[in-house]
Amino acid sequence: VRALKGLEDVITVTVVHPTWRKTKPDDDADKHTGWVFGNPGGAPFNNTIGLGGPFPAAFEVNKPDPHHEGTFSIRDLYEKAGDVDGKYTVPILWDKKLQTIVSNESSEIIRMLNTEFNDFAKNPNLDLYAKHMRPKIDDVNEWVYATINNGVYKCGFATSQEAYDKAIDELTASFDRVDSILQNQRYIAGNEFTEADIRLFVTLVRYDEVYNVYFKTNTRSVSTTPSILNYCREIYQMPGVADTVNMEQIKTHYYTSHPNYNRWSVVPRGNDFVGKLQESHDRDLL
């Protein structure tokens, strides 16, 4: 949304390291692991059980927090804001003047970026949550979140065959529903591009390279579903969007941050899904 609205000059972004680490590395009693900032020149490290890697302390896009010198982790920012009870999640929209968290909920941040910064936006007339579309957007968001955005996690983190079977059935049905919709209309909520497309895209762009393998969602794939693949191509090729998709960081996070699921943190080579997104599409014919 930041890229589509043209807010790069007023809202900066810091990309945290993709591999989770101990957030209090000097406290042996504190076992929490999570997001940390890049540390260019720092020592390489292994995953949280001492295997896998070694991983560089920073990839090219991972920088230290530019506003809080010496800040090690996202947890440090939560503690600075007085929030020590919840999960230390990203994304965070941070107020540099008040030195606090504005929101850590992606659905809220999408809406804020859509409307609250129009005085500074290069594309202020782009409305991703237009009034006449809201009932349809809300309806799509509800089932897409429950069965696709969150559905892939239900599959991946299922601890019983029964739970997995239920989740994969729901996910597969919704994937087919998306396929059917996109064969007949350009975007998921109608013929206008909306926030519902962004929310769906962020899962679809990870689907083949991560979820098919890591979360066992291999009943379907984007690469073999023409309507969905072309849909992803159109969104990826919108101005600024490609710069927000870093498949190396995406894959590194998933495959190296959960040693219970991938003990040695081996990252699969993949099928060059980003290369497929760069090919031409024909969505404008719908």
Could you characterize what this model shows?
The chain folds into 2 domains: 1-126, Glutaredoxin, CATH 3.40.30.10; 131-285, Glutathione S-transferase Yfyf (Class Pi), Chain A, domain 2, CATH 1.20.1050.10. The chain has 286 residues and is mainly α. A hairpin with a 4-residue loop joins strand 3 (93-95) and strand 4 (100-103). It has a two-stranded antiparallel sheet. It has a two-stranded antiparallel sheet with strand order 3-4. The chain is built from 10 helices and 4 strands; from the N terminus they run H-E-E-H-E-E-H-H-H-H-H-H-H-H. It is globular and about 55 Å long. Helix 4 (134-149) packs antiparallel against helix 6 (161-182), helix 4 (134-149) runs parallel beside helix 7 (195-214) and helix 6 (161-182) crosses helix 8. The active site is at residue 153. Glutathione binds at residues 35, 87-90, 105-106. This is GST C-terminal domain-containing protein. InterPro entries: Glutathione-S-Trfase_C-like (IPR010987), Glutathione-S-Trfase_C_sf (IPR036282), Glutathione_S-Trfase_N (IPR004045), GST_Omega-like_C (IPR047047), GST_Omega/GSH (IPR016639). Residues 130-254 form the GST C-terminal domain.
